[in-house]
Amino acid sequence: MIKIAIIDDENAFVEQIRGYLQRFVGETGTECSLTPFSSGVDFISDYSPLYDIVFMDIEMPIMNGMETAQKLRQVDQDIPIVFMTNMAQMAIKGYEVNALDFMVKPISYMSFAQKLKKAVDYIKKNDNFSLALKTKEGFRRVYARDIRYIEVFGHFLIYHTMNEDLEVRGVLSQAADEMEPYGFLRCSNCFLVNLHYVETFDSNTVSIGGMKLPISRRRKKDFSEQLANYFGGGK
């Protein structure tokens, strides 16, 4: 699921973009959600890393899009920003905040679809797919590329990352549905592994970060075939 935030003070325009997004989902099969914010202040004042892409109007009262983007970059360096503006010359300043692209209003569906596809491709190409994990300390943005494996423990999931272990409430089957397009595969009912970090593999276990994780009998054939495909250049 690609989570998109749109920041614009014109309700009619936001609804137009919502319609465009529904059409894009229908045409491409890419699952997306849209969360609107009527001002940059609303968006940035209680920011949590819940979103994958931000569409942002530049001309807004109180705090314009450029100011909002500057504050966003102080807390999130990686999220793709696509500016929307009535004046193309204003969008050039977007490079100061490392914006991915811009759209000039009025925006056609073709332009919207092209820019959104570019943003989605950017996320996938740069291994920038991220999750907003709700831990006891609050939301944390975690990139798929940094997760070695995910373990289920009762009603909780433990995300074993390169630097730390994060515990959240969740169900492994739902995590698998979300993560499998990004190179993750279940080796048993208790573990979902990032194939990129597989060090060794035998008939009963897979080794990741020095940990040997069990491979269940019913998943052994599928796991070994997909692992071979992965290392053979299938992904």
What does this protein look like?
- The protein has two domains: 2-125, Rossmann fold (3-Layer(aba) Sandwich), CATH 3.40.50.2300; 143-234, Beta Barrel (OB fold (Dihydrolipoamide Acetyltransferase, E2P)), CATH 2.40.50.1020.
- Helices cover 35% and strands 32% of the residues.
- It is built from seven helices and 15 strands.
- A five-stranded parallel β-sheet has the order 2-1-3-4-5.
- It is elongated and about 60 Å long.
- The model has no long low-confidence stretch (mean pLDDT 89).
Overview features:
single chain; 235 residues; alpha/beta; Rossmann fold; OB fold (Dihydrolipoamide Acetyltransferase, E2P); 5-stranded parallel β-sheet; 5-stranded antiparallel β-sheet; 15 strands; 35% helix; elongated
Produce the secondary structure layout.
Blueprint: E1 2-7, H1 11-28, E2 32-37, H2 40-45, E3 53-57, H3 65-75, E4 81-85, H4 88-91, E5 101-104, H5 109-125, E6 130-135, E7 138-143, E8 147-153, E9 156-161, E10 165-169, H6 172-179, E11 184-186, E12 191-194, E13 198-201, E14 205-208, E15 211-214, H7 217-234
Parallel strand pairs: 1-2, 1-3, 3-4, 4-5
Antiparallel strand pairs: 6-7, 8-9, 8-12, 9-10, 11-12, 13-14, 14-15
